[in-house]
């Protein structure tokens, strides 16, 4: 199968998932116990407001027709009205997207920057003391609540050392780089254990391969051997692991943005929950779902680009 | 059933004995043993909380200078802003969060194992539909979907159980499906099939014992993930409701006194880390037991 066919097939496979994502987001409203409009507007809502919301969301129509209405609006880029601001939800959400994207990319870069050296230290001396030390990292790291790590980092590096701001997004590229370091580091610390594990395992695999023995016996210098032969081949499975955990990475930003007051969609989501601003919560959930689907697609395509052996007939 | 039916246990036992070397005793596996001991200590501390501490976890003591005390012989970790003993709340919080996490993992485990077996064994359109369903749930970030579900269902334990069940089953389904896909081509399954055993019987009696270990290993890290979610929900006030002790809300309360009373925030988090460590050790140990040499 050719490369273009692979891309086309991958895009076609997206369709059922994308439709499913919209159905899940649509159904969120029907999970609300009792009358959704009454629950969301609270006990003091006037009957007129409740009736208006019923009409807006088409709650008195049959389910299929409600979904159709929802999809029709979605197709026109309409994510509903924010109940709190009284403005359309879409610009509200899209305006908050850049800090979240920044955080995701920054965290992924830091996670790799932490994982590659540690995994290398471990894999190059299997079962030595340093290998055991590195292997303890995931064991401890997997159970660390990300927001707790964030709070401790704020205490240590922002309050005591004053090296980084306690919160915020910063101005300009370097401002973002500085202000977002702690939040990105927090997400990276949550992600690193999984990547370190995968990378160490795949490096050990590669180190045992025959082509490494061949390269060694040819007298390839250790440094070159490592960079060109080991790392390059070991990174591919690690990228896959990173791709699989992209949902976790993106989900972690929801929590971390709130700890560090990063004005992204994660903070918007939690704030909207406290304001009982259902349309915005719904919209953010949808955007998160779309984001993961797109990033997974990107990961798949780059995986194919990274590894020439990938045959496009999965 | 016809006369050629095999005595099934014999078939299964024989194959498994040939397929694997004699399993090591579980207590000879260092990570499994240390993880199990650690978890036993934690569970004991959580269950025996009323015996280990004389204080009440929710009764406030606002008299005089009982609030925000530093660590002392009377209050190992000091007291919080409402004069409650932090160590007591830590034990009770652990008790609450562990209980929710261990119960919450049961339903997704069972649902995932059953659906995964069906998808893997029958294949075809059943498999396609179930796996698309998995793809859809996986499309949402774990925390986002859990938080959104708990929000719409209303804060509290019941919502946590429902949310974790709706989101959690997919991983088990994926794992079991993959295992069944491989296992169903093995000879013992072909033998059972040619003996005319029903699909349900083959899945339950022959396939399940051989594939379930992977799901159990995953369950260990899944419990850790669930505890993290429960604690995060508690932190945002969406989980266990006050005044009931919960590690997440403890971290949130302590955050306001971070610079002066760091122990209020640090120890509830550390408790979660230790629980995570014990379960990860058990998971690693189990994986090592069934696949020796691969770590």
Main β-sheet of chain A, in a few words? none
Radius of gyration of chain A: 24 Å
Shape of chain A: globular
Derived from helix and strand composition plus strand pairing, the structural class of chain B reads: mainly alpha
Commentary on this structure:
The complex is a heterodimer of chains A (314) and B (295). Chain A has 314 residues and is an all-alpha fold. Helix content of chain A is 77%, strand content 0%. The longest helix of chain A has 29 residues. Chain A is globular and about 80 Å long. Chain A starts with a helix and ends in an 8-residue tail after the last helix. The mean pLDDT of chain A is 83. In chain B, helix 2 crosses helix 12. Chain B is elongated, with a radius of gyration of 23 Å. The interface between A and B is large, with 49 and 49 residues.
Fill in the keyword field for this structure.
heterodimer; A: 314 residues; mainly alpha; globular; B: 295 residues
What is this structure's SSE topology?
The complex is a heterodimer of chains A (314) and B (295).
Chain A: H1 3-31, H2 36-41, H3 47-57, H4 63-75, H5 89-95, H6 97-124, H7 129-141, H8 146-160, H9 172-179, H10 181-207, H11 210-217, H12 222-244, H13 246-259, H14 265-274, H15 278-306
Chain B: H1 8-19, H2 30-47, H3 49-52, H4 86-104, H5 106-122, H6 124-138, H7 142-153, H8 157-183, H9 187-194, H10 199-235, H11 247-255, H12 263-290
């Amino acid at each position: 199968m050719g490369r273009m066919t692979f891309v086309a097939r991958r895009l076609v496979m997206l369709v059922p998932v994308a439709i499913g994502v919209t159905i899940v987001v649509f159904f969120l409203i029907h999970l609300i116990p009792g009358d959704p409009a009454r629950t969301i507007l609270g006990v003091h809502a006037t009957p007129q407001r409740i009736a208006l919301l019923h009409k807006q969301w088409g709650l008195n129509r049959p389910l299929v027709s409600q979904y159709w209405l929802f999809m029709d609006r979605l197709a026109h880029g309409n994510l509903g009205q924010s109940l709190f601001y009284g403005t359309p939800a879409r610009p509200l959400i899209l305006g908050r997207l850049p800090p979240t994207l920044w955080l995701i990319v920054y965290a992924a870069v830091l996670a790799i920057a932490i994982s590659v050296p540690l995994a290398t230290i471990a894999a190059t001396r299997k079962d030595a003391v340093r290998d055991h030390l590195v292997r303890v990292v995931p064991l401890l790291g997997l159970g660390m609540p990300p927001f707790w790590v964030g709070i401790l980092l704020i205490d240590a590096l922002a309050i005591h050392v004053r090296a980084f701001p306690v919160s915020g997004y910063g101005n300009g590229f370097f401002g973002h780089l500085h202000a977002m370091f702690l939040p990105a580091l927090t997400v990276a610390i949550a992600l690193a254990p999984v990547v370190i594990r995968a990378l160490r395992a795949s490096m050990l695999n590669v180190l045992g391969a025959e082509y490494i023995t061949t390269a060694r016996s040819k007298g390839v210098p250790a440094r070159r051997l490592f960079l060109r032969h080991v790392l390059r081949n070991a990174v591919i499975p690690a990228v896959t692991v990173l791709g699989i955990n992209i949902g976790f990475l993106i989900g972690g930003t929801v929590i971390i943005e709130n700890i560090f007051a990063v004005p992204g969609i994660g903070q918007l989501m939690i704030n909207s929950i406290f304001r009982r601003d259902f349309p915005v919560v719904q919209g953010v959930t949808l955007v998160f779902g779309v984001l993961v689907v797109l990033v997974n697609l990107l990961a798949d395509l780059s995986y194919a680009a990274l590894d020439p052996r990938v045959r496009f007939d999965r | 059933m016809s006369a050629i039916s095999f005595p099934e246990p014999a078939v299964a036992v024989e194959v498994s004995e040939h397929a694997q070397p004699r399993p090591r005793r579980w207590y000879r596996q260092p990570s499994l043993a240390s993880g199990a001991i650690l978890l036993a200590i934690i569970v004991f501390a959580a269950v025996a909380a009323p015996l280990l501490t004389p204080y009440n976890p929710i009764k406030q003591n606002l008299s005089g200078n009982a609030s925000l005390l530093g660590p002392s012989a009377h209050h190992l970790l000091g007291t919080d802003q409402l004069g409650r003993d932090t160590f007591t709340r830590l034990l009770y919080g652990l008790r609450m969060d562990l209980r929710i996490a261990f119960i919450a993992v049961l339903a997704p485990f069972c649902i995932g194992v059953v659906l995964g077996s069906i998808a893997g064994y029958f294949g075809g359109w059943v498999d396609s539909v179930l796996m698309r369903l998995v793809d859809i749930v996986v499309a949402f970030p774990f925390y986002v979907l859990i938080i959104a579900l708990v929000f719409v269902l209303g804060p509290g334990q019941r919502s946590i159980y429902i949310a974790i069940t709706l989101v959690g089953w997919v991983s088990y389904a994926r794992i079991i499906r993959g295992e069944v896909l491989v296992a169903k081509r093995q000879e013992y399954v072909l033998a059972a099939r040619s003996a005319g055993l029903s699909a349900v019987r083959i899945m339950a009696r022959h396939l399940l014992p051989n594939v379930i270990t992977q799901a159990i290993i995953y369950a260990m890290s899944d419990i850790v993930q669930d505890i993290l979610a429960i604690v995060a929900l508690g932190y945002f006030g969406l989980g266990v409701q006050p005044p009931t002790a919960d590690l997440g809300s403890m971290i949130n309360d302590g955050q306001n006194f971070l610079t002066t009373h760091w122990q209020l925030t640090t120890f509830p988090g550390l408790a979660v880390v230790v629980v995570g460590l014990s379960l990860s050790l058990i998971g690693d140990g189990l994986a090592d037991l069934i696949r020796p040499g691969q770590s």
